[in-house]
Design goal:
Elements: E1 7-10, H1 15-34, E2 45-48, E3 61-62, E4 65-66, E5 68-69, E6 72-75, E7 78-81, H2 87-107, H3 114-124, H4 126-130, H5 133-136, H6 141-161, H7 174-180, H8 185-201, H9 208-211, H10 237-240, H11 243-252, H12 256-259, H13 264-275
Parallel strand pairs: 1-2, 2-5
Antiparallel strand pairs: 3-4, 6-7
Helix pairs in contact: 2-3, 2-6, 8-11, 8-13
Length: 278
């Protein structure tokens, strides 16, 4: 019987901390053996996150067998790369979503009801583009444009079904996106960022380690614009666009009419009108 494979994620920069991590790994191996769960070492690997060209590299092992070091590792459906740009994951989701759109086109060639096609898109394709988006949502325009281009494929197909064919030189999708009620992918990412912040702050996510990352901003004097959550400054994109900082900024730009709502259903309905764009 095999236990799950081990993905060892580390941001370790010192010899001492690396040795402590190795000791923790040894403890995990001992626990697995005592409980009759063998680790499949062939599926175990290590990845280190860094922004430098020559990162500190420490060799980890399981039972004396060295772990392979990789540049990309998949954890819970998300591909993590060493610089946390999530380029490989964006490549994966755009490719997979495009294939699903091709499948929809092939199976709806005789379908004349655009609402059915749009429903298939929302059911089969959007979940691919939105899964765990608070973790990997891109900050570079070239990456966000790639995600939007996937949705533009289905908008062009829907326009064709409605006899509103777009020329290849036409790239304004605003009116058609509103007609088919397909908000931009980035506005949907923003929606899910705010929704996750709401769930953490209102104890829908029962994890103290996560909630401690969201620190209230307390001032001894009043301000015209009071940002409720602390925003940590960073000199690099790596830190500025990290998940917690990004979620905090998303929450801080919401008006009081949203942040003072405590019912999830009411928050969702009001949030739609605030963040969705076409």
């Amino acid at each position: 019987m095999y236990a799950h494979d081990v993905k060892l994620f580390s941001c370790i920069e010192s010899q001492t901390d690396s040795e402590l991590l190795q000791s923790d790994l040894d403890a995990l191996v001992s626990w697995s053996e005592e409980n009759g769960l063998r680790l499949n070492i062939n599926k175990c690997n290590v990845i280190s996150f860094h922004s430098g060209s020559q990162p500190f590299s420490f060799g980890y092992d399981i039972g004396g067998r060295a772990l392979d070091r990789v540049d990309v590792a998949k954890g819970l459906g998300v591909f993590f790369d060493t610089t946390l740009t999530f380029g490989p994951h964006i490549d994966y989701v755009t490719s997979k979503a495009s294939r699903q759109i091709d499948f929809i086109k092939q199976t709806t060639s005789d379908c004349k009801h655009h609402g059915t096609i749009a429903y298939l898109y929302r059911s089969l394709v959007l979940p691919i583009l939105l899964y765990c988006s608070p973790i990997w949502s891109p900050f570079a325009k070239i990456a966000s444009d790639r995600l939007e281009s996937v949705q533009h494929l289905i908008i062009r197909y829907l326009a064709f079904k409605c006899n509103r064919t777009m020329s290849r030189f036409e790239h304004d999708y605003t009116d058609l996106a509103q007609f088919f009620n397909l908000p931009t992918i980035m506005s949907l990412h923003h929606y899910h960022d705010c929704l996750l912040s709401f769930k953490v702050l209102h104890d829908f996510v029962t994890c103290d380690a996560i909630k401690l990352k969201f620190r209230n901003r307390e001032l001894v004097y009043s301000l015209r614009y009071h940002r409720p959550l602390c925003e940590e400054s960073s000199s690099s994109n790596f830190g500025f666009f990290s998940t917690v900082n990004k979620l905090g900024r998303s929450w801080n730009v919401l008006p009081l009419s949203l942040t003072e709502v405590f019912v999830l259903s009411g928050f969702k309905s009001r949030l739609n009108n605030f963040v969705f764009s076409f």
